[in-house]
Amino acid sequence: MTSEEQHADPDPWPAGLISPRELRGYVDRGEITTIRLAVPDMQGRPKGKIISAPVFVDRMDSQADMCTYVLATDINMTALDGFDLTGWQQGYGDLRVRADPASIRRLPHQPGSALVMGDAFHHDGTPIDVAPRYMLRTQLERLADLGYHVALGTEVEFLLHQGTAQDAHQAGYNGLRPAWPHNLDYALIHPPQATDFFHHLHDALHEAGIPLEAIKTEGAPGQTELTFVYGDVMAACDAYTAFQIIVRDLAQRRGMTANFMAAPATGIGNGLHLHLSLWSPHGNAFTYHPRDDLPPVMEYAIAGLLAAMPHLAPLYAPTPNSYKRYTPHTFAPTHYTWGFDNRGCAIRVTGHGENAHLEVRLPGADAHPYLATAAAIAAITHGIHDHPDLPPPCTGDPYTTHHATPVPADLTEAVHTFHSNQTALDAFGHNVVRHYTRAAQAENTRHRTHVTDIERQHGITRG
Fold first, then answer.
1. Please, are residues 154 and 228 in contact by the beta-carbon 8 Å criterion?
2. What's the pLDDT at 7?
């Protein structure tokens, strides 16, 4: 029986992703009434419109309009100048959004609603090169030209706070209370509120077709980690975007707030780790056993990551807060190192046999999944194509190394090494590098002129 035949019965609800034909059936029966057509913005957030489902189905093969500034704005949706894509000189016109029919999924926590990811185009039909999904697709195509495709699994950490986002805002974001007060790393007994939330989240992700592997509580109070199953790269990033919609909404409904800052508090880090392997018609190109040498392709990939990722940091560490996560002995890397099953390294070789893969531990939870993955794939492509030297693996404490390149100290340093780097320009092009340089500069300007709590603490009490 085919998938479409299985879903011909009007009673069962489709589990997650649905085809355009299936969507028409649910819309005709009134079971899906609204479509959220989304484009990932520069911060990784889905931006778009809520469209009447019958209207969407009638126009599924056409294009919707959105203001170009959704791809040229800061986190506060401020209309910024200095972008080639759009601005006051160009009048902030529209871009075209074409729905990706492979991305249709229902949102079970919002009955009657479905999410569809879209790709951004100019009016002449050419793709917008700074759009995150297009940037990722371009890197996948470059790697495919070398004979490989990527499997991706994501692993994200975040904090749960007591109180809604509105509560936090009214309190000036002071006095945030974790959803539980202790280190519950690997715990199987959780407070009732957390247990109920995890059950609800697990069921919602399953029904949305988001391939969850595991939920675990982490080392900081209120900290949680979710691991997602390996799969197609674009599908994995689309699923992660849907996950963020669901987890934030469910937390709010239960009187909590999900916090995806890279460094939500001093000494606490949230990561977005990328688990990557390369595949060819012959299988996993990273296949190896611990007593064997690494396969050459894996060595090239590691060397490329170590050589190129220092120059691509704004794509996976996009805010000033990102760099406060890189502190010693916090399981976040401080240098571009690699090692075997070493969680202090930037690149961790893990698994064995057909399950061997690389874990890229550089992105924080504030990273854009499409851009961080695009950066990692661009670096791997650089390694396979150019064969940079591979340094020895780190065999001890990676935080005490004196031989590896340190991660950038802040976003200013990261931008300096990004905007004119030839590897970045070769991979993404001048237009993309200029665009994301401008975005990072805007972030720096906003933070440079903002007075912080620590400045008030030191300034008021001094003397």
1. yes
2. 33
